[in-house]
Write a structure and sequence with these properties.
Helix content of chain B: 10-25%
Order of helices and strands of chain B: HEHHEEHEEH
Strand content of chain A: 25-35%
Number of helices of chain A: 7
Radius of gyration of chain B: 20 Å
Structural class of chain B: alpha+beta
Distance between the termini of chain A: 73 Å
Number of domains of chain B: 1
Radius of gyration of chain A: 21 Å
Strand content of chain B: 25-35%
Oligomer: heterodimer
Strand order of the largest sheet of chain B: 1-2-3-5-4
Largest sheet of chain A: 5 strands, mixed, barrel
Largest interface: A-B, 71 and 71 residues
Strand order of the largest sheet of chain A: 1-2-3-5-4
Number of helices of chain B: 5
Shape of chain B: elongated
Shape of chain A: globular
Structural class of chain A: alpha+beta
Number of strands of chain A: 6
Helix content of chain A: 25-40%
Chain lengths: 188, 155
């Protein structure tokens, strides 16, 4: 009986371990040393829900961190970045597909020495059931809608009210305005 | 008998099911609240340069931008922070933003899955502010994190 179970486990596990998720990927390189193109089907999950059972219907409305459970091998991937080079995450891009199965394309980062395993940059999303690829670049538009008071020139991160409030209070180095000003005067 | 055993074994392989609570481990961790994208990707420099006061402003940007925040423990382990107390808005929320680059003592529940450590912080036991003052070693990282407008004028 044990022999039968071992054989079943081997049958289930072998093709998954050999799977190459870079095949078919059209991901654009970011020239990151640990990047590997990867495209795969996955279900979007709310990570708090996944671990604790606390599961709002909307997966946290884009404010909770989300995960991708890869269909092929049940591995939980952490999508950290969207496709914008603007300090922007992936939850806003994935939240519309909460608990749905999509196909993503992007860059996997693997650097076990630093603890980076199964972390991902999402570049495009194919909705459930197929269709056109959607670029994962909606974050800045969403931010602009949520912060009409911060309208102006320059990138969002120079205008974000919460960020600017902390910098005004703690300085760019976070050590207080006095130290900040002295260090800037000395170094620039 | 054999058939039901095989089905049972296959069902066990299929677990865990989405939405099902996982078994966590209660832990206490002391470490720095970091920007995990810059730390893992190397996009802004070496791991030592993308933490602490040198990287404070960029850590604010990434946290406000919804990039996952991590707790970098003294032994080098990174814990991905999913929740702090009752605040579940760790993708761009204001609560977690205030802790950027701070060293904290946290009591939480650890969930390990597929090579990553996830933590639900039950309580920040103490917030020690920024203890890693590395700006003299690395400057401000990235250099544009301090805008030209903040620099002395007329010199």
């Amino acid at each position: 009986m044990l022999k039968h179970l071992t054989a079943i486990c081997a049958l289930v596990a072998t093709p998954l371990m050999a799977q190459d998720f870079s095949e078919g990927s059209e991901a654009r390189s970011w020239n990151l040393y640990a990047e590997v193109p990867a495209t795969f089907e996955a279900t979007v999950v709310d990570l708090i829900c996944e671990f604790t059972g606390d599961c709002p219907d909307d997966c946290g409305a884009g404010k909770r961190q989300l995960g991708l459970i890869r269909t092929a091998d049940d591995v939980l991937i952490l999508p950290m970045k969207n496709s914008q080079p603007a300090f922007t995450g992936a939850a806003v891009e994935l939240q519309p597909f909460c608990n749905q199965t999509i196909t993503v394309d992007g860059l996997m980062l693997e650097d076990p020495e630093l603890g980076a395993n199964n972390v991902y940059l999402v570049q495009t999303i194919v909705p459930p059931g197929g269709g056109e690829k959607i670029k994962a670049n909606q974050w800045t538009k969403t931010w602009a809608k949520e912060h009409p008071e911060a309208e102006g020139k320059g990138p969002w991160f120079r205008r974000d009210p919460s960020v600017t409030a902390i910098i005004e209070e703690e300085g760019y180095l976070g050590l207080g305005q006095e130290l900040d000003k002295a260090w800037i005067a000395e170094n620039f | 008998m054999m058939r039901s055993f095989i089905f049972g074994a296959l069902a066990a392989l299929a677990l865990p099911v989405a939405g099902q609570a996982a078994e966590g481990t209660r832990i206490q961790v002391t470490g720095e609240i970091i920007d995990t994208w810059c730390y893992f990707s190397g996009v802004m420099g070496s791991p030592d340069a993308v933490v602490g006061s040198a990287h404070h402003t960029c850590a604010l940007w990434c946290s406000a931008g919804g990039i996952p925040v991590g707790l970098l423990a003294e032994d080098g382990t990174v814990y991905m922070v999913l929740k702090v107390g009752e605040d579940d808005q760790t993708a761009g929320g204001d609560g977690i933003l205030k802790l950027a680059a701070h060293t904290v003592e946290a009591d939480g529940t650890l969930y390990e899955r597929d090579g990553l450590n996830y933590i639900v912080v039950n309580a920040v036991v103490s917030d020690l502010d920024i203890t890693n003052q590395n700006h003299d070693d690395y400057g401000n990282v990235p250099p544009f994190s301090i805008p030209a407008s903040a620099k002395p004028q007329g010199d």
